[in-house]
Amino acid sequence: MTTNATRPTDATRVLVLNSGSSSVKYQLLDMHDGARLAVGLVERIGEETSRLVHTPLRDGGSRERTAPMADHEAALKAVADELAADGLGLDSPELAAIGHRVVHGGLKFSAPTVITDEVMAEIERLVPVAPLHNPANITGIRTAQALRPDLPQVAVFDTAFHTTMPEYAARYAIDVETADAHRIRRYGFHGTSHAYVSRRVAGLLGKDPAEVNVIVLHLGNGASASAVAGGRCVDTSMGLTPLEGLVMGTRSGDIDPAVVFHLERVAGMSTDEIDVLLNKKSGLVGLCGDNDMREIQRRIDGGDERARLAFDVYIHRLKKYIGAYYAVLGRVDAVAFTAGVGENAAPVREAAITGLEELGLAVDADLNAVRSGEPRLISPEYARVAVAVVPTDEELEIAQQTYSLVTFPVDQ
Ligand SMILES: Nc1ncnc2c1ncn2[C@@H]1O[C@H](COP(=O)(O)OP(=O)(O)O)[C@@H](O)[C@H]1O
Ligand SMILES: CC(=O)OP(=O)(O)O
Ligand SMILES: [Mg+2]
């Protein structure tokens, strides 16, 4: 569908869809006053135990619906039903646009983009380098287009924030012609979160983003680190795909690439089997059978050695990236933890920073133990470098970028 869709005059609401490999997070916001009207999450899409938790914020309280949702289309239709039940349906004339998180935008998209046939074709072309994510994003866009063909649909790309990386950080040291022919380079992901968190940290320090150097640690199911100098990304741990870098829930992060040849030649595994091994059966789940940090902490408390080893491998990798990005930045003003693990797992934060005192880094045990949804400092006052916890808000960032694009369109 080639879209001529424009924002209905006076419409100020934006629906944001963040479609993950097996989940959809969504928010409906009124950009006129910044009010959140509804937030929700569909988990375990494709399983018998799919669950939708919908929270209409005007009335408070959550509604939970547990029902098998075979795919993302079914999940999005269930979301549309929940919104409609609160009089916030997708048919509302107050809806100005729908904003979509799109994980891989390659090099073409360094800014939010109104989705046309050409944009869709590019997102589809990138499926092989974001196999867990772009297909879900595409289904989200198609389902939303079918429900509201008249509305502008906007893509906000995870890769966009990283397009400022210098060439020497983005290039792999492989044959240049081969790399260029196949567009092989570091793209980086979670950019919307890295951008949002690095800005919020500057605010927390009472400084302008242009003045501060920050290491952002986005630790969710997928995890990545980035080095942000004066508001611009200068390096990040994910690469051509979201597989490189930190140890994640189910992904290995960095390994010797020769492991792949070895598994093919010696273990007789197919390329597809190795892909599944590294993306879905590795990381924390591969090391100890669990990918949820809460469960891993419970097991460690009970003396479980495999969970302890998984935790130690996770922390060791995290420390290596903090050290690496410290060196890349030269001067660091703050290290910021974000996403599910970074925001909630105090033992992860403590273990990652312990031993880095010579770098000016320390965590105050009492501040680290505080549970809060607000951005906050957890370093002692004497520390040279601030350590912060900053809840990420990819949906708010996507809503703001979507709304400003449909309100003040730029030539694309
Ligand atoms: N209270 C908590 N303590 C420790 N870890 C948590 C807690 N809550 C969530 N997590 C971790 O956060 C992960 C989900 O993070 P999230 O950022 O929502 O990931 P994603 O967006 O990739 O789905 C869970 O798998 C779990 O490991
Ligand atoms: C890019 C990526 O890994 O995203 P997520 O953490 O949502 O899986
Ligand atoms: Mg996430």
From TrEMBL:
Mg(2+). Can also accept Mn(2+). SUPFAM superfamilies: Actin-like ATPase domain (SSF53067). Its EC number is 2.7.2.1. It is found in: Cytoplasm. InterPro entries: Ac/propionate_kinase, Aliphatic_acid_kin_short-chain, Aliphatic_acid_kinase_CS, ATPase_NBD. Belongs to the acetokinase family. Homodimer. This is Acetate kinase. It comes from Streptomyces ficellus. The gene is ackA.
